[in-house]
Amino acid sequence: MNSSRRGFLKTAALAGAALALPAGLDKVFAAEKKQSEASTNNNNVAHIRGLRVLGTGKATFEVSAIGFGMMGMTYNRSQHPDRKQCIRLLHEAVDRGVTLFDTAIIYGPLTNENLAGEGLSDFKDKINVTTKFGHEVIDGKGTGRQDSRPQTIRRYCEESLRRLRLDSLPMFYQHRADPNIPAEEVASTIDDLIKEGKVQHWGMCEVNAETIRKAHAVCPLTAIQSEYHLMHRLVEENGVLDACRELGIGFVPYSPINRGFLGGCINEHTVFDPNNDNRQTLPRFQPEAMRMNTRIVNVLQAFGRTRGMTSAQVALGWLLQKAPWIVPIPGTTKLSHLEENLRTLEFNISSEEWKELEDAVAAIPVIGDRYNSEQQKQVGH
User: Fold this and answer.
1) Helix H or strand E segment including 254
2) Would the N or C end of the chain have less CB density within 10 A of its end CB?
3) Which residues pair with 223 in a beta bridge?
4) Spatial contact of 186 and 180, defined as CB atoms under 8 Å apart
């Protein structure tokens, strides 16, 4: 299937819906209030009905089966719509049943949390905004260092609460491990913040199984967030998913469509914004690597073609069927892609078919590392 994700809408079930989807986002949101009402009341518009549970016991956190990664609305994903349009899309996601929104202090830095606070704080009784600490930010700029000292975690917590306009953070992740601070000390600090009511749940990102066990023993983790998709399955091999299964910890895959690549719209000719897109620095997104890796996208498109699915839906569907405690958080700035992502939940594919897909993808070598050497040092695998 050589159609773009946007082209998906031409044949989508929205064709006769009250909510029409013209090409321009300005037009898409022309009658924003009425349109939002149409979204929730119109059966032809994708709406999440199922919930999933991250964590167990006191760490239990009930969320929508698909979340929303906000990073690309302001950070590292080339051009994006203006603030008002982004907020309208966030409202559309809320109307369609999304209850898990993901941001971080480093996204911007700070601009993404400010957007989340402005756009979502009115829904705080209905949805949950999760954020992350760890990357050092000084005077609004990232330094490239990690800082998870107890006093810093506390300060970042207070600052995130202000930016997100919340009294308590639904979930606070450690974004990257600090090599100078033991996981147990981080967990103890978070445990205190939970007892004080400033944090409700916590998680860790890109850590290994041993670190997970150490932290969880001090303060039960709700979720681990790491990159996981058909082109990067390391968490299946290094014990991370096994540790989550054993300890009753949820798993939140970020970049579930491989930074858009598995959606089929990115290729060796794609030009990334030099000022706001980290993909141009990643080995896997160099032209030659993308040209070779397109073979994997072709497999997803072939699988989806006979099932009425786009390659992005195939990528998300594969993750969703892996375990009921996995909740992917695809990001987008387009209403058409939000619709496409949420419709993934409508497909029913057998485990045998998914295994067929897995085997077909596994037979194709992935070209290029996911991070450059400096960024690779910050992930615990």
Assistant:
1) strand 250-254
2) C
3) 203, 250
4) no
Phi/psi at 108 (5° precision): 130, -65
Helix axes 335-343, 83-95, angle to 10 degrees: 20
Interval 353-371: pLDDT, tens: 999 999 999 999 999 987 5
- Identify the segments of the chain with pLDDT beneath 50: 1-41, 376, 381
Contact (CB, 8 A) for 304 and 310? yes
Q: Which candidate, 100, 16, 91, places its Cα nearest to that of 50? A: 100
Both tokens assigned to 75: 């950070």
Q: What is the DSSP letter of 277?
A: B
Peptide bond into 287 cis (omega under 30): no
Tell me which H or E stretch contains 63.
strand 61-64
DSSP secondary structure of 165-179: T-SSBSEEEE-S--T
- Catalytic residue numbers? 107
Six token digits for residue 81: 């719509």
Residue 281 main-chain phi, psi, to 5 deg: -95, -5
DSSP 316-359: HHHHHTT-TTB------S-HHHHHHHHHGGG----HHHHHHHHH
pTM: 0.87
pLDDT tens-place string over residues 269-290? 888 888 778 888 899 999 999 9
Side chain identity at 160, as an amino acid letter? Answer: S
| Sheet arrangement for strand 100-102 | 68-69, 100-102, 128-133, 171-174, 202-205, 223-227, 250-254
Give the three-class secondary structure for 307.
coil
- 226 near 370, Cβ under 8 Å? no
Element (H, E) at 100: strand 100-102
DSSP 107-144: TTTTHHHHHHHHHHGGGTTT-EEEEEE-EEEETTEEEE
CA distance 278 to 53: 32
